[in-house]
Write a structure and sequence with these properties.
Two copies of one chain form a homodimer. In chain A, helix 4 packs antiparallel against helix 6. The two termini of chain A are 40 Å apart. The first copy, chain A, is globular and about 80 Å long. The first copy, chain A, contains eleven helices and ten strands. The longest helix of chain A is centred in the N-terminal third of the chain and has 19 residues. Helix content of chain A is 21%, strand content 18%. Chains A and B meet through helix 2, strand 1, helix 6, strand 4 and helix 8 of A and helix 2, strand 1, helix 6, strand 4 and helix 9 of B. The complex binds protoporphyrin IX containing FE (HEM) (2 copies). The site of one protoporphyrin IX containing FE has 27 residues of chain B, from strand 6, helix 10, strand 9 and helix 11. Chains A, B: This is Deferrochelatase. Chains A, B: Its cofactor is heme b.
Chain lengths: 421, 421
């Protein structure tokens, strides 16, 4: 039987093939090795802070998202889980194992406390972000499940049904959501898988989604990626540097609702199937009219640079507005929505094929905001009613979660203030 | 309306934000720009050669695999498709678009000949590898669909049913398979999606699989990755440098079967669901016994280094062999299988959850070999009968395809020799 730690393997990897001779020694190591220079030089994102990481953090390339049903009825068990999760998340985001990989506490029959597939991999920018769904506070019958009903924020209501919605309930909602983002998908998958393992008996995976490529920039330094319609996406996103706007539109402020959520944010998820085969048959000019930006540069219609201001007024030779009244950008823009802003953080997905000869592909839309009633909901209403793009998309899953503020001390845990601890 | 090419956007990206002012000019470019220094400096894999790329090519990190049903009945249409595909694959592996992104041949109503989501991305090591399934040669009723039945290799038979198989036919088989591997998943997805687009009306997507992380090394220089059981995978794989072994075990040789396949290889795919939650509950010692290697270093049981020879004979204090008789490594090893070898090239996958509270995760197993009757089939028989690992895995999809040799000239296309052209 051997023991090994993620960080130690990493150090070993750094010394090259010659280090393999030392492998036997490695398998005897019993204590979590200290942070070494080699490991420290990697790309870890700080786990603690006033706000949770994984929101304004420069959008990582890959996503593994999971929504859990809580199956325990025991409040203390739930609190213990949140404590254990927080500790494991702190370890994993630092590039460490979720727990000991070898015999646990000297008991050889115990299963390892880490599943091992991230051994040797650096932190890879991993962030783990948690949110609580409305059903954690009270169930469908209105029952207060864990003594939390009094702390339910008014804004944390299941999203309304929008025109055209084709939602599959089995992949929607959930009591607790966890978003793992990393630049290496193996690291993101490892994180969710280990949190699910730790939660065994207390929670059950309700649904889960992999995203292979980010569709947003969340800092001004990041290049704008492209979605599966082939367009740049995230150009006019809220950005980490816009601290005044983040205060106004992203972070829940004192007095907005229950105190436990101050410094947190509301997370909305929408899995949006994109009918890419149909899209691919439409001419470039039509695609650009539907989005309201050019495909090559991402410039707004009538402008030349990606970051030029959107021009609502200019008309073309035909007397029609250059930015069509049914274009996505016009309908989603703050001007049209009472200055609504949100931080988008979505990912492209492909889930195999659909049994009808087509790829099952689309956008796993993620948005964070201070109040969904002033951001996602009105914007989606406007899109659902008039967006020409609707012909090419189907919303198949929906979720809303209240994400508590960041972890601030070693005793702190996800939801500590919610549980009054 | 704008025009843009993948390579030109890439060059532009290279010059930074200042280049955005030139974007208007860019959108007017009508001809495919020449290769620039910036683009040439990226990681393209040669498309042409005696064998297809994507087999011994250093295993890229990400996979998008698709199997198509041919829906046209017209042999000439099929040949044209294979020609068009070959041309598009040559372009995309060089980091170019599949075709013009702007108005095609000056017709503004025509849809773009590339979908755009890879604009600005480098080649990313993209390889595109094609294989023909038995059903392309004759259908279930034995009918010769395209005048190819006489060229059906004897070894290209649907795989037998193995003990314990739980195969889903709807995600198995297929007339033509295409494997796209790249270090950027967006590039791999873009490739398959554009080939599917080009094939519209002639082929239909039967099934498709994304793989987020490689589970094999195919060259001695590559670090061994880990599968979702947390173990190093690919240690004792066939490697690109072992040219004598590749001749013996990987590439179809003259006289093996029909001439058109000489220089090709047989591709076997198996989607293997891994019951990771059950695995995660078993002790480390048991996991290591099942695999036959240690989890930390990947050394064979009783040895110290990952690349040490497997030791079949040593016994432990209890008199039992250190390498259990039911261990995966013992049962899969060439010693136990009449010296059978194959080149494994699999990928980890997570396809959301299974509706029963668990992640739907596993290994998309891919193996290339000279003759499946001497490699995959006997090895899988041995595993299916005795592998302790069977308790933790379920084979849910199966496929076999004959991959023609590489593209050797500008007029050459995938399957040219098969179609006698
Ligand atoms: C598959 C579905 C969608 C696609 C393909 C898509 C694509 C795009 C693209 C290409 C842009 C322009 C670039 C940018 O500023 O980021 C954009 C902007 C935007 N989208 Fe979407 N989007 C989708 C769904 C949604 C949804 C569901 C919402 C929210 C309800 C949304 C809200 C926005 C907002 C707020 C903007 C910025 C508008 C501006 O300020 O000019 N999008 N989207
Ligand atoms: C989920 C299923 C599987 C898992 C998790 C798995 C895992 C592993 C691991 C960890 C090794 C040891 C490292 C190495 O030498 O690569 C290995 C070796 C090997 N596996 Fe698998 N494997 C699976 C399925 C298969 C299948 C279906 C086959 C072929 C029928 C196969 C054939 C082999 C071979 C030939 C070796 C090398 C044995 C040797 O030469 O020592 N594996 N596998």
């Amino acid at each position: 039987m051997s023991r090994v730690s993620r960080r130690r393997a990493l150090t070993l990897a750094g010394v090259g093939a010659a280090g393999l001779a030392g492998a036997a020694a490695l398998t005897q190591v019993d204590n979590e090795p200290e942070l070494t220079a080699a490991a420290a030089a990697t790309d870890a994102v700080a786990f603690t802070g006033a706000n949770q990481a994984g929101i304004v953090t420069p959008a990582q390339d890959r996503l593994h998202f999971v929504a859990f049903d809580v199956i325990t009825k025991d409040r203390e068990r739930l609190i213990k889980l949140l404590r254990d999760w927080t500790a494991a998340a702190a370890r994993m985001t630092a590039g460490r194992d979720a727990g000991t990989i070898g015999a646990v506490n000297g008991i050889p029959e115990a299963p390892p406390d880490d599943t091992g597939e991230a051994i040797g991999l650096p932190p890879s920018g991993l962030t783990i972000t948690v949110g609580f769904g409305p059903t954690l506070f009270r169930d469908a019958a209105g029952k207060d499940r864990f003594g939390l009903a009094a702390h339910l924020p008014q804004a944390l209501e299941p999203l309304p049904k929008f025109t055209g919605d084709t939602i599959d309930d089995t992949i929607s909602g959930g009591d607790i959501a966890i978003q793992a983002c990393a630049n290496d998908p193996q690291v993101a998958v490892h994180a969710i898988r280990n949190l699910a393992r730790i939660g065994m008996g207390a929670v059950s995976v309700r649904w889960s989604q992999l995203g292979f490529g980010r569709t947003s920039s969340t800092t001004t330094g990041q290049a704008t990626p492209r979605n599966l319609f082939g367009f740049k996406d995230g150009t006019r996103n809220l950005k980490a540097e816009e601290t005044d706007l983040l205060r106004e539109h992203l972070w829940v402020q004192a007095g907005d609702g229950p105190d436990w959520l101050t410094g947190g944010s509301y997370l909305v998820t929408r899995k949006i199937r994109m009918l890419i085969e149909t899209w691919d048959r439409s001419p470039l000019a039509e695609q650009e009219m539907i989005i309201g930006r050019t495909k090559g540069t991402g410039a707004p219609m009538g402008m030349t640079g990606e970051f030029d201001e959107v021009d609502f007024d200019s008309v073309g030779a035909d007397g029609q507005p250059l930015l069509a009244t049914t274009s996505h950008v016009r309908l989603a823009h703050p001007h049209t929505n009472n200055n609504a802003r949100m931080l988008r953080r979505g990912y492209n997905y492909v889930d195999g094929s659909d049994g009808l000869g087509r790829l099952n592909a689309g956008l796993f839309f993620i948005a964070y905001q201070r109040d969904p009633r002033k951001a996602f909901i009105p914007v989606q209403r406007s899109l659902a009613a008039n967006d020409e793009m609707n012909e090419y998309v189907r919303h198949v899953s929906t979720g809303i979660f209240a994400c508590p503020p960041g972890i601030t001390g070693t005793d702190d845990f996800w939801g500590s203030a919610l549980f009054g601890q």
